[in-house]
Amino acid sequence: MGLTIDAYGPISDNAGGIAEMAGLPETVRGLTDCLDAAGNTTAAIGKGFAIGSAALVSLALFGAFTVRAKVTTVDILNPWVFTGLLFGAMMPYAFAAWTMKSVGEAANDMVKECLAQFPKIMGPEKMAPDYERCIRISTEASLREMLAPGALVILSPLVAGMGFGKNCCAGLLSGSLVSSVQLAISMSNTGGAWDNSKKYISAGGLGKEYVKGSEAHKNSVTGDTVGDPLKDTSGPALNIVMKLTAIISLVFGTAIAEYSNSEGGPFWA
Length: 269
Hints:
Blueprint lengths: L1 H20 L4 H43 L10 H44 L8 H14 L2 H18 L1 H37 L12 H37 L1 H6 L11
């Protein structure tokens, strides 16, 4: 059932793209837009299942970390736990901001490349489209722009645990888990809602005076431009934040315990 829910949205979206590229009548595109709107809803439901699964996996890994690092209690009145809790709660927001910014920069590079190619394709030169260049822009950006977010997720538990003790690392994991779950659910639902609002306005849901070309439609396009990376990039990627931070902490749990004092604080305190 989960696989069916996840597959419905992309199939409907691709059907609309094929209909538009094939030059089919607007009525066909209108039907595929309705299916795509339903697909956005099912995608949000499917992502909710994935987020819940990631949260449970992260919680299980957190339990394994407490056993390996010999953390008996996670007391938020402890200053090191509270410090880790604050940084852990902020980490998903920084991760999401970096990934969304990366999507915008890659999209701008793609637009510039298309604007450079179109005059030569449509002009007297009749140049063949350079698809490889566009694919290279997208691929290189996806690899290059993930260095900073990846380093944040991998290094944060190591810095917290080895620099400030196992209690701080436990607080970091707790904060990132709770914050990531709420933020991921919000992003998935918000992105789908903005996408569907654009389709609703385009179909004349607000009236014939608010169809394509109107200020309302332009504003909805702006919202959809933000909503797409929300629901397709940053939201699903937070599942990785939850699980990877816990996995890194578990793998280095013994070392983190060795760099902690008897009370669970940093070895230098």
